[in-house]
Amino acid sequence: MNALYSLVFVLTLVLIPLVGVGAADLKTIFGVCIPSTAIIVFVAGFVYKIIKWSRSAVPFRIPTTGGQQRPYDPTMFKQNKWDNPSTGPQTVIRMLLEVLAFRSLFRNTKASLHEGPVVAYASAKWLWLFALLFHYSFFIIVARHLRLFMEPIPGFVNALDFVDGILQIGAPVVYQSDAIIILGLGYLLGRRLWDARIRYISLVNDYFPLFLIIGIVLSGVYMRYFAKVDVMAIKELTMGLVTFHPHVPANIDITFFIHLFLVSVLLLYFPFSKLMHLGGVFLSPTRNLPNDTRMNRHINPWNDPKVHARPYADYEDEFREKMVNVGIPVDKPLPSAPAGAEAPEKA
Amino acid sequence: MQYGGKIITGLIIFLGLLCVPLLFNTASTGNAAYKQPKLELPKDEKKCIESTEFMRREHMQLLNDWRDWALRDGQRTYVNAEGKPFSISLQNTCMKCHAKKAEFCDKCHNDAAVSPYCWDCHIQPEGLSNEKK
Predict the structure, then answer these.
(1) pTM above 0.90, yes or no
(2) Domain A2-283 classified CATH 1.20.950.20?
(3) Of B28, B36, B52, B63, which to mutate for an interface test with A (greatest number of A Cβ within 10 Å)?
(4) Which residue, of A133, A296, B28, B92, has the greatest Cβ tally within 10 A?
(5) What is the pLDDT of residues A134-178, one digit of tens each?
(6) Nearest Cα to A331, choosing from A315, A342, A345, A346?
């Protein structure tokens, strides 16, 4: 049902520009006002979220991460420096692996129960693979869209465009990123629908962004390969947005307004949703804190400065005599023994 | 704020990346309003082989079809919607009127980051009109 609600919601979102532009002809509202508002909300919301997160207390470093930690005896055990770093630079490598290669997903396992009963765990890499395909195609597609926001177009956008269409299939040439993102989205949605266990834990806020991004991709694909919209007119509109000369030229296909509206909804929704993992991944405590709890003392940030921790030395100072009397070993001997025999410096 | 320096630095880098188009356009054109390119249309011919709307939308597909018909099927004549025949040839039919690539094809293709591979096989006219036979 959650999936159905999300699908109906996205379809309703498609209807809004369809009616707003198609019937009511509100081109300036859908072409200029809504996208500008969306980008402002996106930036402000993003900054607000990050600042809010940065004000929360940093937990005690969690050393239970994959891999051998820095051992007491390095000759016996070798430290796994990228999975269990103990210094800053090693942690940077762990973060790079996480952000660029989705290392946590790579470690995903699948449990299965066999006769005996025996539980078996096997590596499960599909989610990692399709997540990687989806995110990188999305990134390439966003970067390719810079052609609509820059004049003259810088070389790297042209190069990206060329490489993405290097198979030269059809006209206009098929972008591989378009095919791959549909593949990736198909898997990410399919696993939520087919696997009963994942379906059970999937919420509207899991399905909604998926359907929304699928809607954006399909409207974009339709514009490029089927409707063959007037790109130059669209560039005049998008350039108007980034040069602050808002203007809606004639001859823009309605599909473009649908595409733009769905993107605006994505931007509006982004800072307040799970999609904030774009910024949040950099703030993951189990990834970005080196495992140096045995080297540095962690002081809780919320400690009351008026309350002083009592170190063991103070404790021993108070009870040393009693401890010696009952035979408990002490770090420092009694300052002056009554017999004088055990305090040679006093003798 | 915990680790404020690092987080603010990251945030500024992110916002900077978002502002790249704004800064780039200000630096390159002084933030001037963008206008669609004006194409140089032929002086002695008023009508293309098909309607303007059709050519705008489908010229790439038509060129692809022409290539396949001429080179793979050996069919050298194209009959348009009005029943008028044309010789299937990029150099002799298309470029007879649209002689200057730089003034016609490149105008939009450059602004849209499109790099058609026509000139992988054909001799690129480099915007000159001397490619007409």
Answers:
(1) no
(2) yes
(3) B36
(4) A133
(5) 999 999 999 999 999 998 899 999 999 999 999 998 888 999 999
(6) A315
